[in-house]
Amino acid sequence: MLDVARHDVKPSKTLPSLVLCCQRVLNANIDSISGLGPDMPHRLVKPVLQGCSANTLLRIERETPHIIEDNEEIWKDMCYRTYPIITDQYDLLEREVPLSWRDEFFILRDAEAKRLEEAGNRIRIQRLEAEELKKQRQVKFTDRVPPAKRSRPWFASPTQPKSLFQKTRADASKLQKSVFGPRMLPPMPASKGFRPAFASSGATLSFGESTTPVHVTTITRRVTSATSTKPIGPPETASKRKQPDSSADHRHPKSPPPAPVIPEQRMQPKLPAPTKKDPMASLFMPKHRAHSQLPNAVRPSHTIR
Amino acid sequence: MPRDVDMEGGGKSDWVRITSVDGFSFMVLRKVAMGSGTLKNMLSSDSNFAEALSGTCPLQERAVVLEKVLEYLAYKNTYEENGSKDDLEHFEKRVPPEIALELLMAADYLES
């Protein structure tokens, strides 16, 4: 009928009481117990309940509600048994003892399940990643040619045989472009301002360096056409600048002296700076383009000796 | 050969009748019945229980359960006399789990 585990000491002297026998039988068939009945005294059932699982205990409790209050101790023991580490903390840290060991047990169980799940997920992800890596290294069969890293339309690529000489030439041309870059801009947006700048640059040349081999003679005719002070300014300053230095070139003053006094004073301090530069460079790089106040219709011509 | 117990109390081979709630009655030797503390008290001549006079004990147990109880008492009686020389057959094997719970309660009530 029953296979009872002989875990108890075989009573040689005294017979096991019927109570004891019954308890052993019940222990053997714990999972079959559904309920206890209203009359079951707790002391009788206690040893049986202590040996059963949490689920069974819960089920029995549902069937036999009157026994719940007596089960606190059982739940406590179950907590200790199942999660010894955590429950020990209650003693070590002197944490507040949970009012309901029963609830505590389920809290612990859920936490444990979550931890296991997370660990499982982590392992699974690692395994998948390892498999992915492995797959990438595998030899794949395909009928598509992989994209060529470098397409070669020309057999002799111009960039390949780059000798040192070619490299320096390329660098030099790049530099020239960067240096003379601004030169290209002025003719486009402000070509008008570009011209008078020539005049001023020409003036600076003669003013600053008397020893320069290049003498620029600028003949300005715009003074007569314009009546505003603006057009008068730059050519007058140019002419005024020439006055102190009359040895290098000749120039005819076109405006009354008192008018351009103010602009002259303004222009003069700025003149010495560019004169120190290479005349060839200043030809192409009009620095005073921004300061020029000449109108649009001016077209001076200059000759280089 | 069951025969009713005499009103005077009878000898050692008295039989007592134990009745169950569903109408069954069992005859056991008085000696056997004395294995149970409750029955002993009930049947004792010292007390004034009605059972002692009539020699019958109506118990509020089902016949199935009662039968098992009495079986145990007989088993107990047998092996107590022998002085446990023999290898006891564990009575647990003879307990069907279906009645184990009720048997437990009965056993507790009868202090066996």
From TrEMBL, chain A:
GO cellular component entries: elongin complex
Segments of skewed composition (Polar residues): 157-166, 219-230
InterPro entries: Elongin-A_domain, RNA_pol_II_trans_fac_SIII_A
Domain of life from the UniProt record: Eukaryota
Region named Disordered: 140-169, 219-305
Biased composition annotated in UniProt, kind: Basic and acidic residues: 238-250
GO biological process: transcription elongation by RNA polymerase II
Gene3D superfamilies: 6.10.250.3180
Stated name of the protein: Elongin-A
Native species: Rickenella mellea
Taxonomic lineage: Eukaryota, Fungi, Dikarya, Basidiomycota, Agaricomycotina
Automatic annotation (TrEMBL), chain B:
UniProt GO cellular component terms: nucleus
Keyword Nucleus listed: yes
Classification via InterPro entries: ELC1, SKP1-like, SKP1/BTB/POZ_sf, Skp1_comp_POZ
Domain (SKP1 component POZ): residue spans on this chain: 16-77
Keyword annotations of the record: Nucleus
BP term (GO), one: ubiquitin-dependent protein catabolic process
Pfam family, one: Skp1_POZ
Nucleus found in the keyword field: yes
SMART domains membership: Skp1 (SM00512)
Subcellular location field: Nucleus
Family to which the UniProt record says this protein belongs: Belongs to the SKP1 family.
Protein name: Elongin-C
Species for this entry: Rickenella mellea
